[in-house]
Every structure is written in structure tokens, then in C-alpha cells.
Amino acid sequence: MPPVITDHPAIPSARTGRDSGFAAEAREGVSAPGAGGASARRVLDLLWRRGRSFLGCEYAILGGAMSWVSERHLVSAISNAGGFGVLATGSMEPDQLDAEIAGTAALTGAPFGVNLIILHQQLDALIDVCAAHRVSHVVLAGGIPGSAQIARIKATGAKVVCFAPSLIIARKLIRSGADALILEGMEAGGHIGPVSTSVLAQEILPHLTEVPLFVAGGIGRGEAVLGYLDMGAAGVQLGTRFACATESVAHPRFKQAFIRAGSRDAMASVQVDQRFPVAPVRALVNQATQRFVETQREVVERFNAGSLSQKEAQLEIEHFWSGALRTAVFEGDIDNGSLMAGQSVGMVTGQQTVAEIIAELADQAIAGIERRRAVEAEAAADPEPRFGGALDMTFPPGFGGPRETGT
Asked: Could you count the other beta carbons within 10 Å of the beta carbon of residue 154?
């Protein structure tokens, strides 16, 4: 259990689906004559209106549930800043979750959700705790939930959000009753799938309109948020950007590791032998990462020598990281702990408050809309495209395309 460290604007009603009306209204805001920053903000509000309405918050930005990090202080800060905080249950017991939900509710009057692992042995009891607190949204993670699990949560009055790793599974989850889906790509931190965020978004967003869709994985700037909203997403989910927030209870050394890291330092775990599968987890490379590879080799050698059964060998590999995330988050052991981080860690350049992070994301998205307005205004003023000069068709060595000359 993490240690205890001692009204949003009205949301416009959402339409029932992502239809052309959203895009049409947004285009009107973009191209309005003499429009200023206010209309650009209006465009952004229209683009993620469905997500805002579904979550009940000002910005359709979910805080990714990070074990040990997404506790009452960070979650309430995200919700208080207009986003949607999500508590990470992880391996909590029901009484621990009860205390954490109550603690979060004491720090914010805004909506927040709870992330439950479907393989948790006490899942039913955890659902009962959420129901007792009238939790509005439950995010199911760690696998593909069945329709009975989804129905049980919905019977409590909560909305159910699920992760969809493919279009086929997305459609299955909708048939099973999911109220919204998160499309999380392999750029995310922690446990990941095999497909990138951009490919997953292209695979699913154009084909589903029944429920709100949120995109996650590697998102660190508002321009990326805007891009996915343009594709039809209702909103986004971010985790890594919030891990180093001022309100995060993570150890200062944990935060500094994120701040110093680049995108290429967040690597997926390595599997040495296909007979002993390793769940892919993205984290910052450290001394423990190399020891994990060495441990796998040693275990495989002992298995090959007959001193370990396959089950014993698999368990020894799986137990390597036991407690490692908590060690890093709370004790600041960045050499031996697990530093789960997404590739957007390269965009974490310092410690900011949650409100500053969310405002920065929104401002970057609005700036993207303003740039688009400028291009559209230029196109309207000069509808005939032309080159800046005559084309020189003599290509330099190694270059196969035309280049312009003159001004």
C-alpha cells in the first residue's frame, strides 16, 4: 500500500457517435474569419467533447494507472486539474482499496476512476468496494474481461473501460458491454503489446463509433493528442508524463531517472529462450535489466542440466522482478528496481505540477489548431498552388527527385 503523505466548467453534451458533425463544427471554428485563440480552444473542446462528456471532466485526458505511483495524491491532482485520474489497484487487498478510494475522495470532488486487474484473486470483493463508494468508472486491465465481469460492474452503476489490442477484440468487448475502450500501443510503459500506437489507432479508430475510444502509448505532447483527436479519438491516456509530477509520491531519485532518460532508454524486456516466455514490459534500462538477462541464461542452463523442472525454471524467471517496482518508486533504488516508463519519457525534462502538464498539453494542441488555421487562410487567399521557381530537373548524385531553384 502506498504511504500516506500528509468545480470543473460545464461539459457540453456529447453526441451518440463520432459523426461528421464534430468535424464540421471544428472546421467552422478553425476557418472563422478573424478567429483568435478562443475559437481554437473551442475547436479542441469540440474534438474531444465526447470524451469529456463520458468522463465528466474538462480535458479528455486519463491518467494512466501506474502501480504504486497512481495513488490518492496524484489521482486527485489530475482530477482537480480537469483531467481524469485513475487509481492503480495492483495487488491491493479490498480494505486497502477502500481506504485509497476514501482518501482520494477526500482530496477531490471531481470524478476519478479505479483500475482493476481482472486476474486479481479478489476481483469480486474489489468490485464490491468500488460499488460501495459509487465509483463512476472502472478500468479493467491485465487481460480480456468476459461479459459476466463487465455486466457485474455495470450493475453497480459504473461505466466500464477496457483495453483493446486489436480491432477484432475491440468489437468483441463492445458486444460484451464495454462502455469505452483504450487503444494502448507498445510505446507505453509497463506491460505492453506488440503493435505501435500509431498503427493500432489506424487499425481501429476509422472503424468503430459505438463507444468512446481513447488512445494511449508514447503520447507526450499536445500535437500528438490533436492528431489522434483528428483521427476520431474521444481522448487520450498518459502515464509517464505524470510520473514525475510534483504531486507524485515517487522518490526523487526515481523522478530524476525519468528526467535524465531519453526515449531510447525505455526498452522492452528481453526474452532469452522461447521455452520460457517473458511478458514484455517497457522500462528504463538499468543494472537490474542486465542481471535479468543473465538470470534467464543461468536458469535455462540449470533446466538443460536437469536440475530444475520447467515449472520451477519459469517461476524463478517470473519472480525476478517481484517487488522491484515498489523498490524503485519508494526507496529510490534506481539500479536494482524496476523503472517502468514509456518512450515519451524523453519528453519529461523537469518536474511540473499536474496542472502545468495538462495546461501545456492543451496549449500545444491549440497551437497546432492555430497553425492549421494559418495554412487554411493562406490557401484561401492563394488557391492556385505554384512552385517558388523553375524546376531544375538535373538531380544531384544519390537524389532521385526534383528540386526548386529561384525564389
From this structure: 15
Quick one: cell of 298?
543461468
- Determine how many CB atoms are found less than 10 A away from the CB of residue 288: 21
* Structural domains of the chain, count: 2
Rounded CA gap, 387 and 406, in Å?
10
- How far CA 195 is from CA of 62, 127, 221, 262, 313, in Å, comes to 21, 30, 20, 21, 29
188 & 283 share domain: no
**Do 105 and 160 have their domain in common?**
yes
DSSP sequence for 106-131: HH-SS-EEEEEETT-TTHHHHHHHHH
pTM score above 0.90: no
- Render pLDDT for 345-393 as a digit per residue (tens, 0 to 9): 999 999 999 999 999 999 999 999 999 998 888 888 887 766 555 555 5
Q: Could you tell me which of 85, 84, 96 has the C-alpha nearest to residue 120?
A: 96
Task: Check if the beta carbon of residue 269 is closer than 8 Å to that of residue 279.
Answer: yes
- Are 208 and 59 within one domain? yes
Query: How far is it, in rounded angstroms, from Cα 173 to Cα 177?
Result: 6
